[in-house]
Write a structure and sequence with these properties.
alpha+beta; globular; 74 residues
Amino acid sequence: MTLRHDRVRGLDLLVLPERVVVLRGAAASILALCDGERDVRAIVAELERRHPGAPVADEVPVFLDRLRHEGWLR
């Protein structure tokens, strides 16, 4: 998995071995925190610090679980 930004189109992309996924909203900023050192709680804590009042604790774990289910994240 590689996270890239397409400057020409202004899109964040998740580059996988056999496909490219266009990321929308906060997806790229969430994935950027998936560095192999932070667990889900640490990612949520960092995003809550950056975005006070956002429903991070409810939405981020669901998003990350969906990516794991797709096989895009370990």
